[in-house]
Amino acid sequence: MASERPLLVATTPGASTPDDAPSPHPPAASLLPPAQSEPPLRADRLAFSVEVPDPFRPPYRRGDGPAADPSASSQQREREGGDDESRGVIVGEPSPEFAGNAIRTAKYSLLTFLPRNLFEQFRRLSYVYFLAITVLNQLPQVAVFGRGASVLPLAFVLFVTAVKDAYEDFRRHRSDRQENNRLASVLALGTAGEFQPKRWKHIRVGDVVRVASNETLPADMVLLATSDPTGVAHVQTVNLDGETNLKTRYAKQETQVRFSQNAGVGGILHCERPNRNIYGFQANLEIDGKRVSLGPSNIVLRGCELKNTTWAIGVVVYAGKETKVMLNSSGAPSKRSRLETQLNRETVILSFMLIGMCTTASVLAGIWLLNHRRELEFTQFFREKDYTTGKNYNYYGVGMQIFITFLMAVIVYQVIIPISLYISMELVRLGQAYFMGADKDLYDESSRSKFQCRALNINEDLGQIRYVFSDKTGTLTENKMVFQCASIRGVDYSSGKDTGGYSVVVGDHLWTPKMAVKADPQLVKLLRDSGSNEEPKLVLEFFLALAACNTIVPLVLDTRDSKQKLIDYQGESPDEQALAYAAASYGIVLVERTSGYIVIDVLGDRQRFDILGLHEFDSDRKRMSVIVGCPDKTVKLYVKGADSSIFGITNNSSELDIVRATEAHLHKYSSLGLRTLVVGMRELSRSEFEEWQLAYENASTAVLGRVNLLRSVAANIERNVHILGATGIEDKLQDGVPEAIESLRQADIKVWILTGDKQETAISIGYSCKLLTNEMTQIVINNNSKESCQRSLVEALATTKKLRAASSIGTQGPLLASETSTVTLALIVDGNSLVYILETELQDELFKLATECSVVLCCRVAPLQKAGIVALIKNRTDDMTLAIGDGANDVSMIQMADVGIGISGQEGRQAVMASDFSMGQFRFLVPLLLVHGHWNYQRMAYMILYNFYKNATFVLVLFWYVLYTAFTLTTAITEWSSLLYTVLYTSLPTIVVGILDKDLNKATLLAYPKLYGSGQRDDKYNVNLFVLNMLEALWQSLAVFYLPYFVYRLSTIDMSSLGDLWALAPVIVVNMQLAMDIIRWNWIIHAFVWGTIAATTVCLFVIDSIWVLPGYGAIFHIMGTGLFWFLLLIIVVTAMVPHFVFKAFTEHFRPSDIQIAREMEKFANVNQVNLSEIPMRGLS
To answer: Are 874 and 800 in contact (CB under 8 A)?
Structure first.
């Protein structure tokens, strides 16, 4: 039978815990019994109860009713509906009242696909316009084109897009089915501990689930028991917080021991309703009249994997859409580029132009009918009677004829809004995506991953980014930290040299730490000095502190050599891993950890250290401590933390010189960009330990104010500490991160870091990547209530105003003052504060403060909080946002931003699958945005405006002709020529130019990041440029129409011949303007620009050679005269003069920064220009 001894449950320092989530109180070293054997996996007579109400609700009063058992009272409250802030569940009895465990990430179903997909497509206002034209053309009175032919263009575009969307959603449905149909072992009702397989989608709240090693947890569960006798379980939370390190979770001793004894467990578990906080969980478990607190260390979440634990059993408290991972997952949005969104604005303007032309044509037609109403009997098409049959013609009177003429004009002039534009945009984006993927500067050699364009509809948005929101772990860093140097008792040991590592002999095997660090020869010599000198003992204490003051779990891995083993240190904090490896390299090797003790090989001597207590790290204390029972029967307190925290609890009077020397070394390490920690030690007397043990037990079982009580207990024991030394750790950044951030900042792109790590870690990485500097004033928002957050925000805004005022007084001008104030402020805000700020009125204050700061770091943020920060900027400004991350915890942020980028790194494929683009390294952002983003924006902006311009030119030519044909909407240009104008004659050249043209080369764009600002300012696509293009279309249409009209007005040339001239001249004119604007010519562009003019001529020959079509042979007649060719030349010159003059004037007298850079490339040989005018600061 298992012992009733208390079980040690140690909470990891890296975890964030709410007010009632401490580690349970451990026993003294002298009371620790030997380890137990593993209990059998059974669940006989499992009959305990779990309720999930408000954790701070007062317990029920026993005098209110019969003194029934707690379980019965729980069931009664459940039937009565419970508290609004709570929920009730009977453990072992699945409840149908709560959400099932099935999940759904797909956007469509069979019933909703057609209406929802059409709704999303018709968000393009142009599609609504084309739909109206198509419907209008079905009316026989106004039909201009064939009914079927008018439907085909729009139907084809809608069909192709729907097929693409259906395929993407089919993949999501397939992924959902695979997830929902996975199997889990669930305790069967009415059986003696028998677990049976059940599909995930059939699991309900209240089910008891058994999970084996390396299996994924199907739902959020409170741990009841594990294969470890002490209730320890290890999980990997990569799908939640992006971290690959193992986390430690625990089953409470009350359920672990009773489960091992096959005893029934009765009780009530009070906990909160489903919420998005993945770092917090508040609950109380009542068993036998005793209330036991539960916290984040007792719950395992859906999506985590069980590691290095044979099995674990838990009860489901949140299932399906109510699990924390699903609550933190926002649905996949339908993203549209900014240029595409702005098309709606131009579409409205063009619609007004269309209405104006149609109204003019119809009103003038009505006036003509009124003026010729007496001649209608003898006028063709308007005779009121057919005297041969005595029937009326289709003449409906003047009023109706005006209305019909208006509708017919709409159909004839519809091409002013080009439906081919959207197809052209898709083709251009496809070509751009190909060249981005083929760029060697975006290829990651280490992971052999190419750049992938997963969303083809937002390429041009890469050229307009203002804000970059970046994850830290795996995005900016490699998540690899390396011990570099140490200061021990005031002596600096930073001359580390390569070492072959240190190995431990265990039986016939040789255990070697997986990673070796550089060891200082002097330290190695001191540790092996067996003399009576005090210095070697202090050095040994320092490395014992590094090996013991952590929550590292050593894993022994097999190698190809059967006698060689590797020790892999797993833990929540990469810093702790680096320190453990450092201690191992000096011969202090942590080889085993249980919940009650650790085993350390001290220079070949294996020693057991009992873990008597642990005070986890928190952002207020900025330190953690562990109380250990040493082999020599002494009890010692080891503590490590930030220098400001540790120096405040030292005995400065006796160690003043050591403190000063250590401070000097810390400053040296920090200036090198290293992460620093200070290590201390204190030996406890028996009475001090017993006093702490009693206080710790009382604090850990408190229902209210538990965190404050535990902090008080920690503060009482963490005092009069002796400084052992300090450490310097290098956080391995990805290559080129500091330089990339500097380039982005030079391009006026603000970089924000959103991470789930601790505040100190976020600040340290900010310094490492040069985002933070010592000259910046840091504003920290770290509060635990809405009121305190409000006060902090108000104070921070006041501080900002004071700093601005002070900087303006100390500078010579307001511009310099503004620059000075903006570059000196950095905002650091934690996730706990964001709980009270986001989705409340305080987020407006946060927005004001954040936009005043040049740097923002958000730490300890949950996935949906990351998305909330992105939305804070996205919903309040017109600035484009980009989010980049590598883990599943970044998915919501990636989907919320205008542009989402996934890093193909160590954290799985979740971020990549949810992203718009994927790549291998953060530094690739620089060529992606500054080069490809700039090119994509410039090309697409020009292509859109050019399409509007060329179609408006053609439509206006048709309009001028109507003025001279009694407003009958007849045209001299054949229907085939009208159709081919938008499809063949003018579309192909602009597609090729949109893919291949480059206004500047890559070297120039990378050397001068400020050139990126043209996209941020909408320089290449705005209303002014649109109006200018429409004016050019107006002028050129006048030249194309009226020059032939006045020349041939008195001649005998037929309308078909003149129509061929009016069909050919616009093609030459618009292609000549395109040629005038092209920057980089190559043989492909030459072929398409001049080839389309030749193709137009050939098509006119072919069309006029078909005898069944009107205008048979007309082209041969008019082209046979010299006047035709001379007139064609005059038309082109006359049409191009205004564009040429305007272009020459602006580029000479008002050149843009892009034009200046282009001139430098052309005349100054940019390759000889110093390309490092913007200094890139490398890693220290």
So the answer is: no
